[in-house]
Amino acid sequence: MHERTSPSNTIGIDAIAVATPRAYLDLVDLAAARGVPSDKYTKGLGAIRMAIADRDEDPVTLATDAAARMFARGRIDTARIGYAAVGTETAIDHSKPVASYVHGLLGLPQSCRVFDAKHACFGGTAALMGALEWIASGAARGRTALVVCTDIARYELGSPGEPTQGAGAVAMLVSERPRLLELEVGRTGTFARDVHDFWRPLDRRDALVDGHFSVSCYLDAVAGAFGEWRDEDARRGGDPLVRTAYHVPYVKMAKKADRHRAMVSEGLDEAAAEARFAREVAPSLAFAAEVGNVYTGSLYMALAALLHAEAGVLEGSRVGLFSYGSGCGAEFFAGRVAAGAGAFARSLALDEPLRDRVRLGFDAYEAIRRADGDAPPRVSADASADVASDRSTFLGIDTAERRVYLRASPASTRLAVAAA
After folding, report:
1. Contacts of 375 (CB under 8 A, 6+ apart)
2. Mean pLDDT, to the nearest integer, of 62-77?
3. pLDDT of res. 417
4. Would you state the pLDDT for residue 74?
5. 255-306: per-residue pLDDT in tens?
6. Is 112 annotated in the active site?
7. Which region, left, alpha or beta, applies to residue 203 given φ > 0 means left and ψ of -120 to 50 means alpha?
8. Percentage of the chain surpassing pLDDT 90?
9. Higher pLDDT residue, 116 or 208?
10. Beta 23-26 vs 189-192: how paired, if at all?
11. pLDDT tens-digit series, residues 364-385
12. Position 202 confidence tier, pLDDT thresholds 50, 70, 90
């Protein structure tokens, strides 16, 4: 079935889609409840809303819905997928990967490499790099790769991290001759250091973070990864980047990162750094301001926002991407926006999941968060037969301690897309 063994010269992101929980909390409401000025969140963090996952939404449901939406909108032939990797730090099992649930719920081929990648927020990029190199090596034999980043960012109620929560997933199809972004395989800059800037012990649902130290680690990683990428790019003779998307734990962190790169690594003055941020980075931040932190998906949520806003005007231009994961590991890489990407990005309707949401009241938000530690409901193994939904749903745990999911029917997914 797969005769070709030599990949084409272009490999990259062929299609992309996002998924978010049904509900969000407005940061103005959170500020009022916590007794702080709303500007502390809206201006200090650059946040507007944060997505809140209810008990029937988890990394599996978010990942499955993002991929299903991408398949439908992008008219993807799922029979050609030979690699399905999920980047996540929101584990649901010590052994069984999120990717195996997603693989089953989506009905992907059995002749498929399936696994999770974990390195805090860097896990999605690790999965993406593996997919690129799998295709570039010829091992793919003409097949495509599904990479999904899916996470739920939780911090203790009332803690400094609370306004930087969020949830969502980003699905990407990696292929030869991509329709959106041609990535430059092998031309990357990396950085790693053993640090405790952010971690979540196995017995905790809420993450722990050394906030000021984490910012310092992020900025060191920007300088290190970008510096190595710049040297390699100069050796190969690359043309300038016109946009850069960053890992976005909160919007203002992307601004700090670009400012650090501009002034420390590139020698720009403050005015030039500010102007460049407004021109080259700000267009990628609209989705993050609406969703909050998506951990592994944060960089790719920024990429989706950039393509939604500017794919048409960026066709043929290079964009940079910076991925950071606490602990820590980072990578800076680049790609070229494909010809025709503007029209294709419009057809993907990347912002639609953000528009189709419900605003939570503060009391409802706190009730959801306080129930996080409760045991999931007990259900029968065939519970999904009694449920109808246009979204994937976590139903509960059966008597054998297995997680039970409902996958929205392919027919309802197609109808929802056709009606858009």
Report:
1. 397
2. 97
3. 31
4. 98
5. 999 999 999 999 999 999 999 999 999 999 999 999 999 999 999 999 999 9
6. no
7. alpha
8. 87
9. 116
10. unpaired
11. 999 999 998 888 999 987 776 6
12. confident
Nearest Cα to Cα of residue 226 among 262, 252, 251, 250: 262
The residue type found at 230 is R
Q: Catalytic: 247? A: yes
The tens digit of pLDDT for each residue in 28-53 reads: 999 999 999 999 999 999 999 999 99
| Residues 185, 160 contacting (CB under 8 angstroms) | no
Q: Which superfamily is assigned to 11-374 in CATH?
A: Thiolase/Chalcone synthase (3.40.47.10)
Q: Quick count: other Cβ atoms within 10 Å of Cβ 64?
A: 29
What pLDDT is stored for residue 412 in this prediction? Answer: 40
- Alpha carbon distance 260, 262 (integer Å): 5
How many angstroms separate the Cα of 186 from the Cα of each of 160, 228, 313, 334? 39, 12, 26, 10
The CA-CA-CA angle for residues 360, 250, 20, to 5°, reads 45
Q: Which candidate in 89, 162, 290, 310 is catalytic?
A: 89
Q: What residues form DSSP beta bridges with 168? A: 151
The CA-based angle 159-160-161, given to 5 degrees, is 90
Q: Residues 358, 359, 361, 364: is their CA dihedral positive or negative?
A: positive
Which residues lie closer than 8 Å to 418 by C-beta, 6 or more apart? Answer: none
Q: Which phi and psi (to 5°) does residue 311 adopt? A: -55, -40
Cβ contact 19:168 at 8 Å: yes
pLDDT of 413 reads 40
pLDDT tens digits for range 87-103: 999 989 999 999 999 99
Q: Kindly report the CA angle at 149 between 122 and 59, in degrees rounded to 5?
A: 120
Q: How many CB atoms lie within 10 A of CB 310?
A: 20
CA dist 147 and 296 (Å) reads 11
Q: How far is the C-alpha of 254 from the C-alpha of 262, rounded, in Å?
A: 12
Q: Please list the residues that pair with 329 across neighbouring strands.
A: 192, 325
Distances (CA, A) of 94 to 91, 166, 196: 7, 23, 22
Catalytic residue, from 119, 247, 260, 308: name it.
247
Rounded-to-integer distance, Cα 199 and Cα 201, Å = 7
Contact 87, 127 (CB under 8 A): yes
Helix (H) or strand (E) holding 307: helix 298-314
**The one catalytic residue among 57, 103, 119, 121:** 121
